[in-house]
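Pecanex-like protein, pasting as requested.
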Amino acid sequence: MGPDVPLLNEYKQEFFWKRFPQTVLGGPRFKLGYCAPPYVYINQAVLFLTPWLFGGVSTLLCQLQLLQELYAAVLSGMLMFAAAAGVQALALHAARRSGTVVERLGAPNNLVDEEEVEFTQCISPETVRFIAPGKRFGLNVVLHTVLAGVLCGFGTWYVFLGRLTALYGSTGASLVVFVLSWVTLCIAEYSLIVNTAAETATFQAQDTYEITPLTRPLYVFIFIAVDLADR
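Structure tokens follow.
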């Protein structure tokens, strides 16, 4: 390769900067190659932060001593389960309205990443299918929804502020760990309730049976399992 030849050409650079944030955040597409209405980004941000909202409410109730830690974790898990079920129901309804078959095992469209979506309304079928395309199989709908609730419940229990403060002995350090932990949990949850992102080096995900969405939650469960075993 000559010294004047770029490592990535213009198209690959554009593709990289669109895909890299999506990979890091676990799926949200905040950078598109075309102009999209603001509600497309807002809806994705709301979905991404929903686990943190439920966990934050449960943590606050626990800090105010209105709920015990166990009940606060159960509340967070139940709320997340209900939200995940609602997202899957909305995705299924949108697919039926637009006549889209849920199980797509045929030849994929290699240009799907570059297709421009025409958004008409905030919750139109096109918008819903873009943000939450739904699962291919009914078993995955049930499994991922249940895992989303369980992960949020255990995650809330794992990062209670009182527990972190007792562990680190500093409120500032506890807040930093609390924020970073919930960002990690939001990334893992997004893979379950919506869809996981293809890796940056992959143009199109080749995950027919939707195994990839389970990898990020698995890493989180490993850390929680170690803490549970220690206790």
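Note for the archive: Residues 101-114 have pLDDT under 50 and may be disordered.
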